[in-house]
Amino acid sequence: MNPNPTEPLIDQLRAEAQRFDPTAPTGLRRTVLAAVAHSKPRAVMPVALRWSLAGGGAAAAVVAVACFRYLPNPPSIHDPSHEIVKTSPPNPELIRVAIARLWSRDPLEGEVQSLVTSFNNARDTVTAVLPAAVKRSRPTTQTPADVRPL
To answer: Got the DSSP string for 4-38?
Structure first.
């Protein structure tokens, strides 16, 4: 058994042994054995746990190899169904015509109706918030005694 040189018990025993060099005291053996008997045992992983972890790792490796082994192969470069066909660039004028056809009639009509609805909602909101144009009489500044009877 190799002692761990970083444990405090080993350091303590080494210091004691160096103090009594070249001859060790008579009770040193008893002291060493007592210190070893009272020290904590190291935590050792149970054998069953080691074997179960090793088996799980081996099973995971087998599954990984099987998955990569049975993946579908990528198509080959010379497969005729994957040939690239060269075409000429599209005509910009044809693109403009296609866009104009897409946005004429129905889509633009829908945008116009949406704008009309928004303007009507804005008009209703403004007329509800602002006071109406009603002719109101001005309050009188005369006292009742100053008012002349008709």
So the answer is: PTTSHHHHHHHHHHHHT-SS--TTHHHHHHHHHHH
> Residue 136 domain-assigned?
no
User: Looking at the domain assignment, is residue 25 inside a domain?
Assistant: yes
Q: Does the model's pTM come out above 0.70?
A: no
- In 39-103, which residue ranges form alpha helices assigned H by DSSP? 47-69, 92-103
Peptide bond just before 22 cis, omega within 30 deg = yes
Instruction: Count how many domains the chain has.
Output: 2
Report yes or no on 69 lying in a domain.
no
In angstroms, rounded to a whole number, what is the distance separating the alpha carbons of residues 100 and 105? 10
Give pLDDT tens digits for 65-99: 888 888 776 666 666 666 667 778 888 888 888 88
Residue 12 sits in which domain range? 8-38
Q: Is 10 exposed, middle or buried (0-12, 13-18, 19+ CB in 10 A)?
A: middle
Structural domain includes residue 19: yes
